[in-house]
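Narrative progress, year one. The postdoctoral researcher (J.K.) led the effort to move from monomer predictions toward full complexes, under supervision of the PI. The following entry was the first complex the group processed end to end, covering 331 residues in total.
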Amino acid sequence: MEAPEVDNEDLRSVTNLDRLIHEPARLAIVSLLYVLESADFLFLMNQTGLTFGNLSSHISKLEAAGYLDVTKTFLGKKPHTTLSMTDEGRAAFDTYCQSMRRVLDGIPGTDGPPGH
Amino acid sequence: MLNIDIKEIERRAHQVFLQDGWLEIFAGVYLLLMGLACAINPSLVVFCVFATLPLRRIAVAAKERYVYPRVGYAAFPVAPPPDPKKVAGVLIGGLAVYVLIMVGALAVLYSTMGPVEGRAFLYGRFVPAFVGCLFAIGPIVFAVKFAMARGYVFSAASVFLGFAVPSLGLDDWHKTLALQMLILGVLALLSGLVFFARFLRKYPATREGGPVGSS
């Protein structure tokens, strides 16, 4: 059965949220990379508090969606992964922030929308 | 409650690379060099600018060796190069303010104290206090921009030394300035080394997938 169309604009914002970014761990990764030119895997691990496997899996999903550029090199014998956000990823994050802002602006008692 | 503060995320990302103490170590060595140059001959201070590049290289190499393997590496967006006209304007404006302050101070001191005492006060008291205040600007900028509390402490120490060192009554004005810079340099260097030691203890060396040494 087809889902009925949502009339309320604010609710439409919620249902249309980019779920790939909305997941908390990925939101943390994307928020961090948004303010950086690039970062390596270790920096993201330290900043987000995610484990190696967890971070790796989330990065793979973001990379598959075209939101992240992942460059793998070696420092000596150790692998070194550098990540940066693509233009597509930045645009998706901007859209996500705008959607969240619209949703949160309508809720009384919220401190402020994301991105501020 | 979801509340992403992009500015705060950016500030915290910067803070990661300011906690290793290398900024203070770099500033400390630079101040010590300037202090030594000033003690020998004040005109030598100009040549300290040539130490910037080798010192920067050492700091970068140290970061690569000790900092990035522990906290990782992040590159921040590079701001577009400033308009050369604007840079020239700021430099000329700064120089004009400096000259204005010095000439103004000279005029006031000469007219109120007379040439001999006025000159002695200018070099013996005013210049060290002025230099102390000048050296306080940089740390305050860092303190405000990156919520780095120790920047306020360093600024306060610089201003304090600008007033306290002249009270020692050294016979030469450049010895006063030299001592001021040497004390400040030692303070910066020691605090930098303490922060660096704390950093090494707080963050063990790791690489992707586990501690260094594991494969």
